[in-house]
Protein: Alpha-1,4 glucan phosphorylase
Organism: Psychromonas marina
Amino acid sequence: KAPAKSTAKKSSAVNKVPEIECTSKQMQQAIVDRLHKGLGTDAEKANNKAWWNATCHAVNEVVFDKLTQTQQNHSGQDTRSVNYLSLEFLMGRLLSNNLHNLQLFKVTEEALKALGKDLYEICDEEPDMALGNGGLGRLAACFIDSLATLGYPAIGYGIHYEHGLFAQSFQDGRQIERPDTWREYGNPWEICRPESIQHVPLYGYVETVFDEDGGSHKVWHAGQKLKGVPWDVPIVGYGAKTVNILRLWESRADEAFDWDVFNAGGYVDAQAEKSKAETVSKVLYPNDETPEGKELRLVQQYFFCACSVKDILRRFKRHNTDWTKLSDKVAIQLNDTHPTIAIPELMRILVDEERLDWDFAWSICQKVFAYTNHTLLPEALEKWSVALFEKVLPRHLEIIYEINRQFMEVVEAKWPGDDSKKAKLSIIEEGDDRKVCMANLCVVTAYKVNGVAAVHSELVKTDLFPEYHELFPTKLVNVTNGVTPRRWLKACNPKLAALYDDEVGADWVVNLDKLRGVLPKAKDVALQKRFMDIKKDNKIELAKIIKDLTGVEVSADAIFDIQIKRLHEYKRQQLNMMHILALYKRLLDNPDYDMVPRVFIFGAKAAPGYHMAKQIIYALNKIADKVNNDERVKGKLKVVFLPNYRVSLAEKLFPAADISEQISTAGLEASGTGNMKFAINGALTVGTMDGANIEMAEEIGAEHMFIFGLSVAEVKELKQQGYNPFDYYYNNPELKSVLDWLDTDYFTPGHPGALSDIKRSLLEGGDEYLCLADYASYSEAHLKIDAMYRDQAVWAEKAILNSGAMGKFNSDRSIEDYASTIWNLTKHPIS
Ligand code: KOT
């Protein structure tokens, strides 16, 4: 029998969240049953992977039940829903989170213990679902957790990549990429839905068909067709009142089509065509903030948008025939510009297939789509060559031309005769290689455009889209990012979570503002001791992992100073590196140099084609080799670069951090979300006034953080004046000696110059990200860290003040902001 009957209790401790009744005995029975009946093994023979599998399947019995109830409830009431379109969902592992959200974690822990198994070890068996690159994909994962927790009808749409983000290892300090194989042995969380397959046309040509009434319409004759197979991953909200779905599309060859067109080619050619079709969802592009203009990437984008839009319309048509109702029932949120092609796809369906009048179809589109911008980096703005577009999506290009033609009339009306305005705002960039600007298409169409932190949203208005802002003064808005406290505190830091249960009550997990309850007690010695003991325990755990992964021994008495995020020059891992070299130099110059022992910990993947990012990884690994094996530093300095940084490793790092490095050049990190996860877990931030750091400082008090460096305005001013990194190089002897060190073979014996290109990019290269300009201030901030850590009472107080003030940065708050200001969405939790 299934482990649980989902009976709601009359009252419950947590925000009236009903608990699912399930005893340890029932759970044991369910797991053992799955071992026997599902996997054909038994408790004696089963390895930990089999135990994990069996536990997941036991949990699914509850999840699927709740899923059906939610779907029936939403469909029965024909609710308005949000459709979150994202090329990336960086989910990580699901077992621990699902158990917490079902409130079955403790009971499962007991059940497995009785069976001689440790739940934490079982959870560690799960491969990460790494269907994303970094912040943007992880944000999507936090958002669907919050949507379900809050009881909003929502679907996440994405791609069912066979290979997620590459696995990283190091060979002689250099990054090696290997394919990720998360689905090699199946995935217990997903359900294939062949009944909801979609067909996707590609290539071919467009015919104008003249109608009897004198009008005409367009018919797209595709040159190829793909089949989209949906895989649904249930998304369990906290308290399990709502289980939404994440629907991921897998591409296959469309047999029906192949037989017609490739008949003469015979069996072997048909098989080759089949493999080609399957490459579409094979692999996630590993570039963060640098779009790749490859045909396969455009096909991926269109494939998943076409499947998703058709699926959305299929659900709409189940209850509706009146197209004016579409915008009442459907909001489509575009996670950056990657799903922009959904806009002309909806136009195509409405105009060509449903035969709606253009203006009517356009008015619908303008009420359905909203767009989130996640970056100001100019190189990250997606532009597709018109020639490629014409080849892959000929009809969509025509539609985009028509949208643009009409929009240019609007621009002409606003700024008569101003061709420079037209050139700037046009969706089509003119030139030798004409381009389709996806962000422009988004802003022209969407009814709301949002940035992801206050400062970023202001810069979207003033620097990125000033003319659009003038034209559409209410369109551009802010929704500050947040992270789910279920994964990023309750599940990853059980000891701190238990402390908060005791201090402020267990419902902080659905109301993170409750953590403020600890602020008045920040000086309380007993609380400080408990807080710091937990931090120490977490550091000891991490020290074991570090030893396991790198062989390096670190002491949990040292300051754990952590920078984990994608490797990108604007995030300035190289600035951190320069400061580490300075400390190393100080220790070599003066063996008695007085510093609190420090462990610098890095985790970062570099895009495989990003040379400088890979060089920085190489440099850090080489520096780590030297420093960690140099007796002269007397254990005061260690550097570790953990391989294969990913969500499940992050869950071990945030709880163990003393210092959180958030050191991007001001104006370039749209928000950051790691900054929030660190602070929630009691780390102090060394950071610039950038992205969400600014709002964190407002909540926490800047005096409780280590803020350094140029502000956004100062960065602009310095760049305007003409920034010269050599000014800083010649005026700061320590900085100069650190950079000169990179030209020697000290860190790369026998290979002088192996690290010189980092120095070159910081000097002759112009230091685009102002590392030298911010160096002195950064170095000073680290002296303050060192001084403060010596007084553990002050440190504990600050850590509590940071963690307790993080209520705002909860993704439930972000989702409530989206729901009220953008989506106009109502909650429909199952009762
Ligand atoms: C943009 C274009 C292509 C690929 C990735 C991106 C991208 C990623 N843009 N922004 N991000 C990060 O998104 C996070 C969530 O909003 C932000 O916190 C972070 O600052 C962005 O860098």
Q: What stands out?
A: The chain has three domains: 1-77+94-127, 78-93+128-446, 486-711+769-808.
